Input
Amino acid sequence: MKAQLIILGCGNSVGVPRIDGYWGKCKKNNKKNIRSRCSALISKGSNFVLIDTSPDIKNQFNNNNIKKLSSIIFTHEHADQTNGLFEIRPFFWKNNKKINIYGNLKTINHLKKRFDYCFKSASGYPAIIQSNIIKKKFSLGKNTEKISFRTFQAKHGYTKTTIYVFEKLAYISDCNDLSIVNIKLLKNLRYLVLDCLRIIRNPVHFNLDDALYIHRHLKPKKTILTNLHSTLDYNLLLKLLPKNVIPAYDGLKVNL
Ligand SMILES: [Zn+2]
Output
């Protein structure tokens, strides 16, 4: 059975436009410049695995007509990857069972602190989340719907981010340094979804030069740039990219 990835959001931590209506260099008349915060959904049959719960998650599900959720994998603990966790309650009500989430120890500990009410029943509100610490290899789903993951820790400023590799795709939305990753294991990819915050350098994210260097080095069939800042207009960025590198946009579907 074939899997699909939907880029639900490809914006930086404040998205485009920002809450104050600021669009930066992005042209308002191009829908591909409307960027919600980074998250993505992997589907394989009826197995729906969400990557991160952005603050925009409710609209992202509705905009893409997604009605199912099987489990959630987290890249790291930052607010733009996690603040939508509260929104997933309707899937607990629908399935009548706790939703399994997966992440590294630091991310899970942060989530337990910030969303304590999701993990522990209190005042008549049941716990809705079951936490799991990720392993280097694990799988989600059954039989032909099973998705197998490999995970790697990489640097994202002062913290670490989990890179997920599945179905010949690597998802690296927030990262500035792959030096602690065994790079051989990121070769032979069909797709690389890669952090590219902006053109100028940033201490916790890859910039355009970094992203293109990594693309040339890893040689995936296609690289999709994400976590895009309002200084990167879709059409202008596209013109700067080689043929097999594209900017992401919200709602982009990738058949795996
Ligand atoms: Zn981050």
Observations:
- Residues 3-255 form a domain with the Metallo-beta-lactamase; Chain A fold (CATH 3.60.15.10).
- The chain has a mean pLDDT of 96.
- The first strand starts at residue 3 and ends at 9.
